[in-house]
């Protein structure tokens, strides 16, 4: 009976995701440290190893569907929980530099019978801009969803998903692997363009 009644009372709680000044200062210090580069490089490598069917230090899962592509980065005890949270925010900041705007930032909490699930999410859309020499709106990589899921306050995984806009007035999306290169290895991407 408790389980049945729980269905009616354990509704998700949703709030705006905001970071404190203290969190932001620590995040900025992390972004400018070697820890940031080491973690993004390790997960970037893990993605490519997974695509090639090879074993890697960190566990990832590819998301390959008709109108969406992405990757799930699983937490590993070798990573500090704080650094994993910083990675989530770093992905959002890097996407903003690519011509995206933040449409929503929220956090949800769901109390299940045996555990509590918290999910922080950023939803980003391309800034309105036409493809040069065409009447098509440039969708860049599509709409981007970045989520950090925690179970009982322990990090679980980060999802980075690019959803294709299927409207005929939009361009075809750029390859997901290019998005991943840009958000995980931005300095290398800039150097290869120069």
Notes on the protein architecture:
The protein has 194 residues and is an alpha+beta fold. The protein has helices at residues 2-9, 21-31, 34-51, 81-97, 176-184, 186-193; strands at residues 13-16, 60-65, 68-74, 100-111, 116-126, 143-151, 154-163. It has one domain (12-193). It is built from six helices and seven strands. A seven-stranded antiparallel sheet has the order 1-4-5-6-7-3-2, with helices on one face. The longest helix is centred in the first third of the chain and has 18 residues, at 34-51. The N and C termini lie far apart (65 Å).
What tags apply to this protein structure?
alpha+beta; seven-stranded antiparallel β-sheet; 37% helix; 30% strand; disordered C terminus
CA(first)-CA(last) distance: 65 Å
Task: Report the structural category.
Answer: alpha+beta
The total tally of domains equals 1
Beta strands, count: 7
Instruction: Please work out how many helical segments DSSP would assign.
Output: 6
**Strand order within the widest beta sheet:** 1-4-5-6-7-3-2
Summarize the topology:
Elements (H helix, E strand, L loop, with lengths): L1 H8 L3 E4 L4 H11 L2 H18 L8 E6 L2 E7 L6 H17 L2 E12 L4 E11 L16 E9 L2 E10 L12 H9 L1 H8 L1
Antiparallel strand pairs: 1-4, 2-3, 3-7, 4-5, 5-6, 6-7
Helix pairs in contact: 4-5, 5-6
